[in-house]
Amino acid sequence: MSDALSPLEQRLRAVGPRLRRQLRRLYGDAAVGPLWQQIEDVLRRAHAARAPALVALDEARLADPDWFVAPDMFGYSTYVDRFAGSVAGLTARADHLEALGVRYLHLLALLKARAGDSDGGFAVADYLAVEPRLGTMDEVEALAERLRAARISLCVDLALNHTADDHEWARRAKAGDPHYRAFYHVLSPEDAAARERDLGQVFPTTAPGNFTRAPELGGEVWTTFYPFQWDLNWANPAVMLAMIEVMLTLANRGFEAFRLDSTAFLWKEAGTDCRNRPEAHYIVRALRSALDIAAPATLLKAEAIVPTAFVPPYFGADDGAIDDAGGFEPECHLVYNNSLMVAGWVALAEGSAALPRAILAASGGLPRGANWLSYSRCHDDIGWGTVLGDLADLPAEVDPVARLRAAARFSDGQTPGSWARGEPFQSDGSVLHGSNGTMASLAGLEAAGDDPDAREMAFRRITLLNALAIASGGLATTYMGDEAGLLNDHVYRDDPEHAHEGRWLHRPRMDWDALGSDAARRITRDLARLRRARIASGGAGAPAPLDSGDARVLGIACGRDRVFLNFSGDAVGIAAHGFDRLSGAPVAATLAPWQTVWLGEDA
Ligand code: GLC
Known about the structure:
8-stranded parallel barrel, TIM Barrel, alpha/beta, 603 residues, 4 domains, Oligo-1,6-glucosidase, domain 2, binds alpha-D-glucopyranose, 4-stranded antiparallel sheet, 37% helix, 17% strand
């Protein structure tokens, strides 16, 4: 019978109940009827407007849901303006991405941002327009097509938690429109003060507190991040409807992935810290269901910078226990493995592989059609606190907070003998928060100056961290400039819109001349070797730690291969023999300081 139904009708039947289940959980039985009608209408309209090439992509990916869990997947993340000035400039530079083997491109700050400071583009003034300085949506659509032809999927941020204070919804709210006022959380000063006691601080130094006075709204508006980023009230079904429409409109422009910004913060509930609430998951599941119906080629990626134990649920969960629907309910296809990233830097500071080993062990068991996004650096700081719980579970004499503070001090170059040149973020160094710095500056290239031995060690550390991201099986994503060994960029201090924000330290402009430097040649050569080794290994997906026989060395099984990473500055003996895919030479019985070896199975 169902053979006679169109693919859309089939998916409405198959996935619709999953979407309605989330709506019921979020908004109650009574709200679901009319809301579902409106959402169904949006889904049908979006699907009808979808270009034939994208519909074909939908079909191909439905037939191969693991398409992005592949050994050759490799990602790149960049600000458009910092990379190439504009969308047209980026299109002209696409050959650089192809040469690196990129198959997934995350463009930051692409959509129209608030005037003035915009938290690096994360205060969005219009989700459906491109930042005018950079180009037009038509140019982006052409870029997406050009990239798709090169098998590169384009990803854009969908800042779900907040709009800019000059977004049309916010402007209408300020003008007194009650419909849009209800898009935000407006509290009395007393209620805001009461809530504040339960909440954490994302930017304690530059944006303390979680509420901002909004006289036009007659109260305090919830602002988890900067005062100009107004948190959306997802308890209002109109927000859900509006955001589904935004998402599907963008998907029809050719974006193949959405980075769901700050997913942990979406639901507010009195008496809680308002992070990782079950409802935040239902919201993501609703968005996923909508995509699965109307644009199923599209990936969702969760950014949830939260303690390790709270992260895997962003892939989805089996919620038979919550109601009797049962079955696995998917959320995001990709989730940042933030804890593994932090663990890599802790391991370098400590000369011990203990923490990344524990995180790898906690990162297994992925559902089908899902993978980690693995990385060493991104546009944000290294937030140390997310691995506190993992350290507490490890046998150690040192208290976890002290251990992380030591790693942070080391990374900030405050420990005698440290090679790292990071800087504390949202902290003067006295409290644990984050560290900023480019990969090269944190790994020792800046401090090495012209000293060839010190430079060699820095290159090895860079390769070691790239190897962690690649060998652990995730969609390994490099941050723009790290492939060229770009150092910390201090010019942001002279820019009034950036001076207060230390993360600009590691968001340099691409130096195209630097790509010809010895450093860039060495780093990109090693990256290419790592990528080729992974392809040859056939490995991708959930990581598998291996016993290396030494606490300083991390062992990882990647496909048919075994990879060993020496996080220490010591020469360490290993009991592995065979052929190293990276150097093309037989593996010596001893790993050199910070050496990576990739043992091919056909050794
Ligand atoms: C995400 C972004 C970060 C931004 C924050 C608020 O964490 O990665 O850059 O500051 O969300 O939008």
